[in-house]
Amino acid sequence: MEVGEYTVEVGTSSRDIAVTATVELEGDGKSMPLTEWSSFGEWSADPVGAKVVEAVDAAGERGALPKLPDNAMMRLFLNSMPINSLPTLLGAAGKDLTAFMLEEYAKLTK
Questions:
Q1: Which domain holds residue 91?
Q2: What is the pTM of this model?
Q3: 3-state SS, residue 53
C-alpha cells in the first residue's frame, strides 16, 4: 500500500453514498513493480525506475539510444504515456528504448 490519503465511501450503490471518510495511511514501504504499461512519469518517480531513467538519459547522451525530448511540453506528454507507447513518439527506436528500460529494471530488481 502506498503512503497517502484515501477516501472510503459507503452506500447502497455508487450513486447513493451515505457516508464518506478520509484516512491517511503511512504505507508499507512497498511499491507496485513497473511494467511496460507504467507511464514514463511513474518510472521517473519510482526509486528504482529513476535509476533506469538516468541510464536512458546517459545512453542518449552517448548516442547508444535515442535522446529523449527535453523541452517542457514534450516531457509533460512523455510523462503521461506508458513506455510501451514510446515507438509512437520516437519511431522504431522507441522499441529499443522500451526494451532497454525493461531489461535494466529487471537487472536492478533481481
A1: 40-108
A2: 0.75
A3: helix
